[in-house]
Records
---
Amino acid sequence: MEHKMKLSVTLVTGRTIEQGVGKEHGKNSEDYMEDVAVCYLDPEDLKQLKIKQDTNVQVSTPYGSIVVRALKSRRGPHRRVVFMPYGPWANAIADSETDSVGMPSFKGVPAEIEPASDKAIMNLKQLLEKQFGKETDADL
Amino acid sequence: MRTCKAVTCPVCGCLCDDIELQIDHGKIVKVKNGCSLSEAKFLGYAGHRLLKPLVRKNGRLVETTIEEATKKAAEILADAYYPILYGWSSTSCEAIRLGVELAEEVGGVIDNTSTVCHGPSVLGIQDVGISTCTLGQIRHRADLIVYWGSNPWSAHPRHIERYTMFPEGRFEKSEWRDYIVKTKASTAKKKVESALRIAPRQKADFTAPARSAPCPAIQKEGRRLIVVDVRRTRTAELADYFIQVEPNRDYELFQALRTLIHDQEIDVDKVAGVPVEYLEEVAEAMISCNFGVVFFGLGLTMSSGKARNVDAALSLVRDLNTRTKFVIMPMRGHFNVTGADTVFSWQTGYPYAVDFSQGYPRYNPGETSIVDILLRRESDAALIVASDPVANFPRLAVEHLVKTSLIVIDPHFNATSQVADVVFPSAFVGIEAGGTAYRMDHVPLPLKKVVKPPNGILPDVQILRKILTEVRKVRKERGKEAR
C-alpha cells in the first residue's frame, strides 16, 4: 500500500467572503457546501503532501476528523497553517475547551492533514446525521 | 417600482445605513451601496424558507399551526428544569427584551452569540476598561488604523470604506487614490513575477524586489494602516505595515509593543515570528500618530490567551494614551450583537451568560456560558432565536444540545431547525420587520420594514410574546408562579 504523507499543522478557522455570502443563500445549498467544506493550504504544503488543489484531504484534531476539499491559499505564505471557513465542517473538529471563559478554541488548534482522494465529502444532512444520530429534514 | 432610501443593512456590525433598495411588487430587485453580503441577503433572503411552523411528531417534522407550536414550545419551557435561551444577535432589541423576560419567567440561562465571539473581549474590558469612541470620530480624525486579528475585507466589507481608510473625513483625507496606485503596482509586480516563472531560462533584466522588504510607510503622509494577522489577508494587502504573527502568539506581540512604547529594549531578534526592528518601526508609527485606533477581531478572542489577549490589547492602548490619542474597538460580527449585550446589561446588569435559575441574575462566564453548560450536559431544553448553534458550536457541545428539547425561531431553515422539535419561521428583521439595532460603536439605529412578510409569518417580537403569555398560562395551571 502506498504510504500517504501526513503533515502536522495549526488549524485556524475564520470568515471568508464566500462563506458570508453562501450562508445567506441557505446552508443546505450546494453553493454553501462548495464554499465552506474546504481548507486553504500554503502552496508549499500542497507540494509536500504531493497533491494538487481540489483534492480531498482529511483534517484531524484530537476532537474529530473531517474530509474537505483542499484549495491553494492565495493568502500565503503561511506554511503549516491550514485555514478553514466557519461552518459545520470546521466545527466537527474544533476544540471545545473554553479555558473557563466560555469561548471554545476555534483558532490555533493543532491538527494533522493527509490526502484522502478516496474519501467523499459529507453534505450537511449526512454530517448532522452521522454526528448526532438525529434524523434531519433537509428536504422540507 | 418604488425606492426605499436610507435603509439600515441587517448583516454585520457596521450597520451601514445608506442602503437604497428598489422594490417591485413587494420584492427587492436592486440593492445600491450594499456590499456583497448585503446584496446576498437583500436579494436572496426570500428563497428556500419555511412558511408554516413545524413540530416533531414520530421523529419527523410536520407542519402545524402557530397556536399548536406555541403551546408545545410553552410546555417545553415551563416543564424544563434548566432551559437555555440562546442566539439574539440577529434580531431587534425589542425581541431581545422579551427574551430576557422569558428567561426570568422560566428560570433559565440567557446567553447571546457574544459567548462564542467577543465574550472574552467583554471580560477583558471588565478587567482593564476601554478607551473608545464612535465610528464617526474615527472617520473624521483617525490617522492611524490598526486591524488586529480581523479581516474586514471579508467580514465587514464596507468598514474600511465608510469608517477608516477611504472616507473623506473632516480632518483626514481619503486614502483611496493611494490604494489604487498600490493595487496597480501589486498587479504589475505579480505579472512580472509570473512572467519570470514562466520563462526561467531566459535571462531577465528585471529583478523582482524582495517580498519581505518593508514598505517606506514611515515617510508616508496621511492615514496609515497596520494589519496584524496570521495570514496575508485581503485587508493586509492594503496595509502600510503588515505584521504576520505566528498563531497563538498575539499576547507576546502586544507585550513586545508595550515594551517598545515604554522606550525599553528587547533582547531577542524576533517576537512571535516578527523581527524586532520591524516592531520598532511600528511602535514609532503608533507613538507619532495624532489619533490612532485599534480594531480587533476574533483572532484575539478565539486563539490561545483569549480574554488575556484582549487585556493586553486594551493595556497597549492605555499605554499609548500616555504618548498620544488612541482608542480601541472590537469588530462586532452580527448586526445586533452589540444590542444583545446592551439590552442584557440594562435589564440584568450583565452583558451575556446570565443565569436566572436562582431567581435573580447571576453571571459567571465559564460556568453560566452556554458552551460550558452544554459540555457539562446540564440543560434540558433550549430556545434558539435567530442563530444556528448546531452549525456554529464545536461538535461536543452540539451533541448534548440535540438530545434536549429544542425550539427554534429563525427566518432561515438552518442546521439547528433541521434537528429541532418545534420550529417557528419568523420575519426577517430589518427587511420584513422593523426594530432597533446597535452598531458596533454602541450607536442605536432604526431597522426598517421595507416589504411585507409572507402571509402568516410573524416577527420575532410577536412570536416571543405569544410564547411568554402561554408559558405564564401553563405555569399558572401547574401552580408554578413567576419566581
Note: The radius of gyration of chain B is 25 Å.
---
Amino acid sequence: MSEEAKDSDVVLRCEGLHRYLGEGEGRVHVLRGVSFEARKGHVYAIVGPSGCGKSTLLYQLGLLDQPDGGQITLAGELMSNSSDEARTAARNRHLGFVFQFHFLMLEFSALENVIMPMRKQGKLSPKEMEERASSLLESVGLGDKLHRLGTQLSGGEQQRVAVARALANEPSVILADEPTGNLDHKNSDMVFNLLTRLAKENDQAIVLVTHNPEIAKRCDFVRPMIDGEFVAED
Amino acid sequence: MSPNFRIAFRFLTAKKRAMFMSLSCIVLGVGLFIITQATTSGFEKFFIRTILGTNGAIRISDKMQDTMGLMLAAGSDPGETSMVISNRENRKYIEGIDEPRLLIKGLRPFGNVAAVSQVVTGSVTAESSFKDEDAKIYGIELDDHIAVSDLEHQIVRGDLGEFRISPLGIIIGSGLAVRLRVDPGDSLSIQTREQNRRYTIVGIYETGVADIDRERIYMHLSEARSMLKKTTGASFLQVGLIEPKRAPADALLMEETLRHSAESWQEREKTWLEVFRALRISSAITVSVFTLIAGLAMFNTLAMIVMEKTKDIAILRSMGYTRDDILQIFLWQSVIVLLIGNVLGCLLGALGTFGISQVPVNITGIFATDTFIVHGSIWHYVAAVGTATVMVMLASLVPARRAARLEPGDVIRGTAQ
C-alpha cells in the first residue's frame, strides 16, 4: 500500500494530545502528548488500567472535550481548535458513539432512539429514516422490538439499540467506551460481534476502550495506555 | 413536528406531576387575573356610565372674567347674590351663564358634541305631609336633558310621559322620596326664601348615586326659572358627547373658545377614577403573585428535568444536537406548558367572569347594582397571557441556558457541575 493510499484511509488522527483535569492542587496531567490514528475498516482497542486516560482520550477523539494541547484531525479537517458549532456538526456527520451505560433516551422507543441522529442530520425523509432505523434494528436482532421504550428493554438490548443508533448516520468512526463493560458474557459477545461486523461491512473505523482482554484480543490493533501515554504491547 | 419539539414534549410528559403543578399555577394566574380585571373594570365602567348618565360628559358653567383683577360681578337679577370664583389657575369666573342660547350656538362647530341641555339649579326646601328636607331643583327641557343623560331609563316609579304633559309635575330622587315618604301622585311643597309652591310628583328616579338621589328634583325649566327668579341665563350647560373619552380635550377647547369654565367628567370624578385605577392595579399586582409562583414552579420543573436529563443532554450533544437545540428543547417545554396554561387560564377567566356576573350583590352609593358588574375586554386576556408568558419564559431561561452550557464530556465523565 502506498503512503498516499494509507493517508487517505486515515479518518481520525491526533498528535501530541495533552489534557489536564481538575484544578489547583488536584490538577492531573491525564493525557501526556498522545498520538493516535484510526483507519477505515479497522478496529482499535485502547486498553489500560482505570484512570490511565483511555476514556479521556476517547472523548477528545469524539470532540466531546477540548484538548489543552495537540491536534485532532477528523476526515481531513483540523478540529482541535474549531468552534463548538463546527465540532457539533462534525460529531453528527462523522462520529457514532456507544457508551458503557447504554445511554438510551428512555422515554423514546428503540426506533425513535435510532432515528434521533438522522432527524438532526435531516438528510432523509421521515419514511426513509424509519426504514433505515428499522433495518438497523433488524440487523442487531431487535426487529420485533422497534416500538419498545428504552425502559422495556434489557441491558443487552439497550446496548444493541445504542449500536444501531451509532451507525444511523453512517459515520466514518465509531467510538465505543467500554461498550460491553456492563453486559454479561453472552451479550458482550453479541454486541462486539455486531459492532465489528456492521462497521467492517460499511468500511468504518472503530475505536473502543475496554478492560476486557478477550474483547481486546479480537480487535485489529491494541494500544495499551499507562499514565496518559501509549506504551508498547507486551 | 420538529425534533426539538418532539424531545421537549417527551421530557415534559415524563414529569407529569411537576408539570401539572406549573400548569395549575399558570391557569390560576391567568384566570384570576382576567376575573379581577373584569370585575374592577366592570365596576369602573358602570360608574362611568352612571356619571355620564347623570351629570353628562362635560359641564359648562361659570363665565370667565375678562380682567385679571379681582372684582365683583353683578347677577342678572336684582337682589341676587353676586360672586366671584377663582380657580387653581388664578382665573376668575362669574357664576352662571348669561346667554345659554349663544353658548349652545357656539358649541355647534364641535363635531364631538351630541346634545346640549341647559339647566337652572337652586337650593330649596321640599316639604311633604311628614317632614321637610333640603333639596336642589334642576330646571330642564325634558327632551334636551334626555339627550344628555339616562333620565329616561332611571325612572323607577311613575311616568316620564306624565311629566311631559304636567307643567307642575316634578320627578324626585328615590332617596329623597324615602326620606319624605312620598310616592308618585303625592304632592310636595317646594320652598325658596321668597316663594312656596306645590307640585305633583309624577315620577321617581334612581341613578344609584346616593348624593344625587337624595337631593335632586327635576322640574320644567320655565317653572325653575320662575321659582328661582332667573328669567334668563342658566346655571350650567350639560353636554353629551359622541366619544366621551375625548371630553378633556373638548372641554379645554370649549373653555378657550366660549370663555366659560368647562369641566370634563374625567376631571369632575378624578378622585373616584383614581380609586378604581388603584384598585385595578393593586388587584393585578396581587394576582400576578400567582403568575410569579407559576414562573417559580416552571423554573423548579425545568431545573429538575435538567438535573435528571444531563445524560440525555450529553447523548443529544454527542449526536450533533447544538447548544441552541438544547436551549430550544427546554424552552419548548415552557412554551408547551404556557400554551396549555394560557388556553385553560383564559377559559377559567371567561367562565369565572360569567359566574361572578351572576352573583347577587347589593351595592348603592356611587352607583346601584344588584349583581356583580363585570366588563370583559380582550386586553384583560392579552395582559394576563402577556404577564404569564414573560414570567414563565424568564424563569425558564436560567435552567434552559444551564442545560445548553453542559459540556457533554463532563457529563459522561461524571464531572458535570
Note: Confidence is low (pLDDT under 50) at residues 1-5 of chain A.
